[in-house]
Amino acid sequence: MNDEQLLRYSRHILLDELGIEGQQQLCQSHALIVGAGGLGSPAAMYLAASGVGHITLVDDDVVDLTNLQRQIAHTTARVGHAKVESAKQSLHALNPEVQVSALAQRLDAAALDILVPTAQVVLDCCDNFETRQAINAACVKHKVPLVSGAAIRMDGQLAVYDSRDPDSPCYACVFAPDTPPPEIRCATMGVLAPLVGVIGSLQALEAVKILSGMKSEFVGKLQMLDARNLAWSEIGVRRQHDCPVCGNHHAT
Q1: What is the four-CA torsion angle of 118, 213, 35, 164, rounded to 10 degrees?
Q2: At what angle do helices 19-27 and 193-212 cross, to 10 degrees?
Q3: What whole-number distance in Å separates Cα of residue 177 and Cα of residue 202?
Q4: Residue 64 and residue 105: Cα distance in Å, rounded?
Q5: What is the pLDDT at residue 252?
Q6: Mean pLDDT, residues 60-71 taken together
Q7: Residue 225: which of 250, 202, 252 has the closest Cα?
Q8: Which of 35, 79, 153, 195 counts the highest number of beta carbons within 10 A?
C-alpha cells in the first residue's frame, strides 16, 4: 500500500479485526452489487469508501425524481440517466481508486454464470423475486457468499447465505422458488427513506467482513427490523434437505 492509501484507510488499519492485511484484501477484492437503488446506493458507497478494489454495479433502470427520496447515490441533475452510470460517478467522486464496472442490464442465468464467479461476494439489492432466486442459484453453483437485503414500508430484512459453509442455507431454503410472494413495490406501498440506508449499510458491513477475512455471524439467521419501534427480531434458518437449489449439491 502506498502512503496515500495508508492515510485514507488509517481508521481501518487501526482495527485489530482488520489491520493492514485485511485492508489489502479489501483493495484486491471484487464485489458484485445487483441493484443501484435504495439498498444498492448506500451499500456501494460504503464499499467504495472502504476501499473495495473492484465494484460491479448492475441495474437496468434510470434515475427518476421519485428515487431521490432514498437513493442517495443519485442527484437531481442525473434524473433520466442510467442508475449504474449515476452511481459510478458518485463512487469515483468518493474514492477515485476504486474500479467501477457499470452494467445497465437485467441479469439472467447466463449473465450471472459469467459475473458471479468473478466476485468474492454478491450483494442482492434488487426488488424482484425472480432475480433474487437467479442470483441465489448462481451463488450456490459457484460457491460465492450472498448478502441479501430487503426493505418495504417500515420493515427490513437482512441475511447472509454462504454456500462455502456446508451448514449454510441458501435463499431458496427460506423463500421457496415455486411460491413467490405477492409483488410488493415501493411505488405502491411506500418505504421510509432511512430504512433502506440502514439495511444497505448493513449489507456493506457484512460484505466488508467477508472480503477482509472476518467471519460473518449472520449465516443461518434471518434478521428482521421493525423501524416503527426500532426492534430487531431473528429467525434461525437451516439448510433444507429437499431444497431445489442447494439440497442436491451438499450432503447434510
Answers
A1: 60
A2: 110
A3: 25
A4: 17
A5: 38
A6: 97
A7: 202
A8: 35
Integer CA distances (angstroms), 225 to 53, 144, 146, 177, 235, in order? 30, 25, 19, 23, 12
Q: Give the closest residue to 146 by CA, choosing from 113, 168, 167.
A: 168
**Amino acid at site 131:** T
pLDDT for position 187: 63
Residue % of the chain over a pLDDT of 90 = 88
Helices marked H in the chain — which ranges? 3-8, 10-13, 19-27, 40-50, 83-94, 109-115, 129-142, 171-174, 186-189, 193-212
Residues with catalytic function: 186
Whether this prediction's pTM lies above 0.85 is answered by: yes
Q: What is the mean pLDDT of residues 22-51?
A: 98
One-letter amino acid identity for 26?
Answer: L
What b/e string do you get for 86-122 counting C-beta neighbours within 10 Å, with b at 16 or more? bbbbbbeeebeebebebbbebbeeeebeebbeebbbb
pLDDT band at 178 (very low <50, low <70, confident <90, very high): confident
Question: Looking up cell 460517478, which residue turns up?
Answer: 89
For cell 454495479, the residue is 57
pLDDT range class, residue 251, cuts 50, 70, 90: very low
- DSSP bridge pairs for 54: 30, 99
Distance CA 88, CA 15 (A): 28
Is the domain spanning 11-236 CATH 3.40.50.720? The answer is: yes
Mean pLDDT of the 54-61 span: 98
CA distance 12 to 5: 11
